[in-house]
Amino acid sequence: MRKNQQHRKQEALISLGAVLRHRRIELALTQDEVGKAAGLHRTYVTDVENGLRNVSFLTLKRIATALQCPLSLIIGDTENHKE
Predict the structure, then answer these.
(1) Domain ranges in the chain?
(2) Phi-psi region at 39: left, alpha or beta (left = phi > 0; alpha = psi -120 to 50)
């Protein structure tokens, strides 16, 4: 993978993580609570929020459900996210 493509991929994962973190904090939930609701370990949620995991569609849907948020809103917010 080219360096520029890798950089864009990393930016996208970081943006997704920031959007998920923001939503979790809005709901006053811990990473552990989100993980349990989504059937994931807390450290997995941490990795997603930090842009270290490229989650599958189904896993992202489970996280969105745990965050009481439509998946479409998360994707839209990720596309519009600015650091």
Answers:
(1) 3-80
(2) left
Name the token pair of 36. 């349990």
Q: Indicate if the pLDDT at residue 77 is higher than 80.
A: yes
Assign domain 3-80 to a CATH class. Answer: mainly alpha
The length of the chain, given as a count of residues: 83
* 8 Å CB contact between 9 and 46: no
Hey, what long-range contacts does 63-66 have (CB within 8 A, 24 or more apart)? 63/20, 63/34, 63/38, 65/37, 65/38, 66/34, 66/35, 66/37, 66/38
What confidence tens digit (pLDDT) does each residue in 44-61 have? 999 999 999 999 999 999
Distances 9 to 34, 50, 70, 71, 73 between C-alpha atoms, Å = 24, 13, 23, 19, 20
